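Running co-folding for iron/sulfur cluster.
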Amino acid sequence: MRLDIDTCLKKASVCSPWLFRINAGSCNGCDVELATTALIPRYDVERLGCHYTGSPRQADIVLVTGPVTIKMRDYVLRVWNEIPEPKVTVAVGICPISGGVFRDSYAIAGPLSRLVPVDVNVPGCPPRPQAIMEGVVLAKQIWMKKLGILEG
Ligand code: SF4
């Protein structure tokens, strides 16, 4: 069977989506749990073939924490737009999903879905590392669908 270069690249990259984290005004609770998935061997997202990157231009899956404060809104939009398509957006914690304890605050521009399309919600305050891992697995499947590798 002969594969064209696009299909080969897609099949090669689909094994290793790169993750990028955006802190949209979080209290850092969710970020500590995200760090757990990056640093603690028990959870380690690299077991899923994922890798955290420091550049949005290299990212495939973006994990957003925090309620999106008015101060962070422009930063979130600018960085989110720098991530190439197809990308998958994951809201980590109840803050980006609904505003959480900051809901209805005058200082909040979120929830995140008001600003950008959200593909996966990982609820919790903060979510446990297992829930974040599950969200990453789901995000990876959605990414494969967006790439046309996975049917459904
Ligand atoms: S969901 Fe909870 S832990 Fe996460 S940023 Fe919001 S308040 Fe903090």
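Result summary
The longest helix spans residues 129-147.
The chain is about 40% helix and 15% strand.
Job closed.
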